[in-house]
Each structure stands twice: as C-alpha cells, then as structure tokens.
Amino acid sequence: MLLDVAANDPANKVQLFAETKEFFMQGYTGPNLTGEKTADNWLIRSWEDFALPSGESSYTFTLPIPEGVASADVTAALTYKVGDNVRVFDEAAASFPTQ
Description:
Helix content is 0%, strand content 52%. The chain is mainly beta. A four-stranded antiparallel β-sheet has the order 2-1-5-6, with no helix packed on it.
C-alpha cells in the first residue's frame, strides 16, 4: 500500500510538504513465517520490513510549518496495488489553522 500525503499553503500557493510512505502487505501461507510468500490478504499471517509494527494502525508525518503560514491544506490518499491492479483505497482532505 502507498500512503501519499501533501500539504499546501493556500494563501501563497506553495507546497509545504509531500511524502509517500510504502507499506508492504506480504505474508506467508503458513503460520509463524512458514510456507510460500503471498500478497493475498486472506492468507497474510505476518508483516514484512516496511509494514506498520505489529499492533499499530497509524503512521505519523511531521510537518514543520514555516513562519507566516496561517493555514495548511492537507490531502492524503491510500492506494492499494496488487500486480497491475491499482485502486485508491481511501482519500481525505482537510484544512488546518497553523496558529
């Protein structure tokens, strides 16, 4: 899965931040890291290197706000890809005051 996050200063029409974080959703067909690797979400038993740590369901981006920026428009998209099949899983947009 890919999580794309961007923040813009709407008053100055300047991008403040953009980052993409990749989370692998691969597992094994057997328990305890045994069997063949799979991307089938029904068979996943464990998470790989770039996944969220076990028991966690969120990832935090840190955005330094430059002096004089009154608000930030933030967009985020979670994209799911298996092979050539790509689809947006969820999208969000919000505006936040910075002061």
